[in-house]
# Entry
Amino acid sequence: MALPSSAEERHPYLTALGERVRALRARRGLTRKAAAARAQVSERHWANLESGTGNASVLVLLQVAKALQCGLASLLEEEEASGSARHQHIALIGLRGAGKSTLGQRLARELGFVFIEISRVIETLAGCSISEIHGLYGPQAYRRYERRALEDSLAQHPLAVLATPGGLVSDEASFQLLLAKCFTVWLQATPEDHMARVVAQGDTRPMAASPEAMGDLRRILQDRSPSYARADWQLDTSAQSQEDSFQALKKYCESLH
# Structure
């Protein structure tokens, strides 16, 4: 696989191909090393393919497709979601306490969409709670359930408002799928409002679990903010009342259709 002399020379098709390979690998729960071993290609070649800097031969792609248990067409198809298609799914992202469930349910009713809370779908698929998934099976298993829940929700509901888990943006493959298939809105709030809203909902675990809970929350928000900022639109729910936030969200989303 020949490498281009600079990142600017990457072909858009190769970049998209790399994203599809990375997404399919994540769906199978494979590390890059394990996937490369299955395909009988070097890990370096696989890394180049995923990054969009490698020009793989058809035979190599055939081996990659077999390793990922998919057809060659799944790798080669040029799939682009049109703007209007993305607007059929509205995904709300952000930390707990931002208003994803509260505003999302109201928005879905107003638009005539289905409201889906991805965390509940994950629990249904796994047959246990989110905390039990992490405790019994670990974070990688949780990410697989998260990805499947997202894929199933998008496939089964042509018109939907999705409230996504706060950490979904930490999994690049799932987040790329969300950005490609949904119109995304980052519901922002101050750390103080995030914490106060969670506690007001009756969940005192954050404070009980750690006296440094607020500091931890600030760090998580700071770390994830660059990812959240990739959303199509941002709404600060701390800057206005819940009703004003909803009306702003409704008005903007109605303008998309």
